[in-house]
Amino acid sequence: MSDHILETKNLSKEFKGFTAVSAVNLQIRRGHIHALIGPNGAGKTTVFNLLTKFITPTSGSIHYNGTDITGEKSADIALRGIVRSFQISAVFPNLTPRENVRLALQRPLGISYHFWKSDVILQQLNGRVMELLEDVGLADYADEITGELAYGRKRALEIATTLALDPELMLLDEPTQGMGVEDVDKITALVKKVSANRTILMVEHNLKVVATLADRITVLQRGAILAEGPYAEVSQDPLVLEAYMGSTHA
């Protein structure tokens, strides 16, 4: 099996004559944390949308574990083990963390839509639910109303629901966006913890987080790759410094 779990070849996307992503060649190494950074409008989220087939590439291809998945639908890609989180927390606010994670766990069991199933059947999931909530530091909040949790805890819950799908490749879109320093540190430590035995591709504005977590970094500018390599190397690249001139954030 290849060292690279995910590869793109000349991946491009145009919107009515505007090139949002231009001939991007990514190689995501298995077991690594790979960060995708760049100034606002660089095309980072568009790349994520292409990888998870929320939008269709204009040209180029996407390969996962050596298989061309360019023509597959979002649901099929998720079933392959590519699971994505979003910039905006995507949990059910009126349910408890326990219920949110239990819903996510129903999918692999094939009972995702069996809302009429008795509670006794769903109780079989509770052990794994509590393991996941413990992993993200939410065991004490299992039966609180999710909408009343602090923002950082909602993001931690989203990571728990993502982990419930047992992804081989996690795509994290701005996991620390909008957080204070304390929550940023907690989520950074959490991402590091859950990276064990899986691969993470993340879009992240906070360069301190990137420097702490990423094994490798790809810098995008105007939809194309500007630089790539370890943080120590990329952060000293004159082209990257110019792209980030006057800013401490991507």
What is this structure's SSE topology?
Blueprint (H helix, E strand, L loop, with lengths): L3 E12 L2 E7 L2 E3 L3 E5 L6 H8 L7 E6 L2 E2 L5 H7 L1 E3 L12 H13 L9 H5 L2 H10 L15 H14 L4 E5 L7 H14 L4 E5 L3 H7 L2 E6 L2 E6 L1 H4 L3 H6 L7
Parallel strand pairs: 4-9, 4-10, 7-8, 8-9
Antiparallel strand pairs: 1-2, 1-3, 1-5, 5-6, 10-11
Which keywords apply here?
250 residues; alpha/beta; Rossmann fold; six-stranded mixed beta sheet; five-stranded antiparallel beta sheet; 11 strands; 35% helix; 24% strand
Overall 3D shape:
globular
User: Could you state the CATH homologous superfamily of the largest domain?
Assistant: P-loop containing nucleotide triphosphate hydrolases
CATH architecture of the largest domain: 3-Layer(aba) Sandwich
Low-confidence stretches: 246-250
Rg, alpha carbons = 19 Å
- Fraction in helix: 25-40%
Give a verbal description of the structure.
The protein has 250 residues and is an alpha/beta fold. The chain has two domains: 1-81 and 169-250, 3-Layer(aba) Sandwich (Rossmann fold), CATH 3.40.50; 92-166, no CATH class. It is 35% helix and 24% strand. It has helices at residues 44-51, 74-80, 97-109, 119-123, 126-135, 151-164, 181-194, 207-213, 231-234, 238-243, and strands at residues 4-15, 18-24, 27-29, 33-37, 59-64, 67-68, 82-84, 169-173, 199-203, 216-221, 224-229. It has a six-stranded mixed sheet with strand order 7-8-9-4-10-11. Strands 1, 2, 3, 5 and 6 form a five-stranded antiparallel sheet that branches. Helix 7 (181-194) links the parallel strand 8 (169-173) and strand 9. It is globular, with a radius of gyration of 19 Å.
